[in-house]
Give the backbone structure.
Amino acid sequence: MLSLPDFKEKTIIFAFLSREDRLNFKNDNVVIRNNGKIIHQSSCYRLFALFIVGHTSVTTGLIHRAKKFGFAIIFLTHSLKYYASWNAQTEGNTLLREKQYRYDSPEIANYLVFNKIAGQIDNLKQMRMKTNAVNGAIQVLQQLQSRLNSYDLPLESLLGVEGNASKIYFQEMFRDYNWTGRKPRVKHDLINSLMDFGYTLLFNMVEALLRLYGFDVYKGVYHKEFYQRKSLVCDLVEPFRPLIDYRIRKAFNLGQVDENDFMKIQGQYKLSWKNSSKYSSWLLKELIDHKIPIFQFIQSYYRSFLREKEIQDYPVFKKECL
């Protein structure tokens, strides 16, 4: 399994490709060619994940190298919508999966939502100009979080706590930007569109890490199981979502978001092909900047779950101040 020192040397590549580009390998390097000319190459030894945006050809040799060196390949459309992936994974961890299938306690679900609300509180506390409304929201979130201290809230009640916390949090987090509500996949405004994109990057990063340890990513502890839904990944992204929220708000504050970069199709805002790279760059950088604590959290979660530790001994994710 991947160790922390090895992971520190790993990188994530985001490749925007045209039909003229070809993706293959040369001397254990991932190579992108345009009309035969090499325009980029990265060592397979240092790759953790390769995001491919657009239409291109992928050789069987590259798939072989991905398996050999243990990096994921994630495919996105021109509009940055996920449609396929190939993930390196640990196979045969039967003990882990037996424990996954037996687990039926609400403790871990409570713990994950507790971590998520902690991140939301931190985001609001980091706002420079905190109004009375923001301070009031922080107090309400802390009260909601306190309901999870015993880690025994039933899942139905937990959904209510999480929903209330998110509603209050988003209202203050994006009050200055005409926030009207979180509507996943609807993309009715710029913020929701960027959230969907950022959360997709986060989702695939967490999935790649979970597969390294041999988890069944379809067997969740909080999100209900539906056919072909990766419920465990949905669970484990929760503590990290505030990273994306914080970076999106920062981008608005810095003037990095321009409505003219988006296309509006049937009421949905979608990034245009020519402008998508600049948004992916700062969203991906946020995840890369925090890749070590994210890795450590997933690694510690695996060890805690496998050893059936007390929930108080599970890891706590803390955003680094960058």
Strands lie at 11-17, 21-25, 29-34, 37-43, 47-54, 57-58, 72-76, 82-86, 262-265, 268-271. The first helix runs from residue 4 to 8.
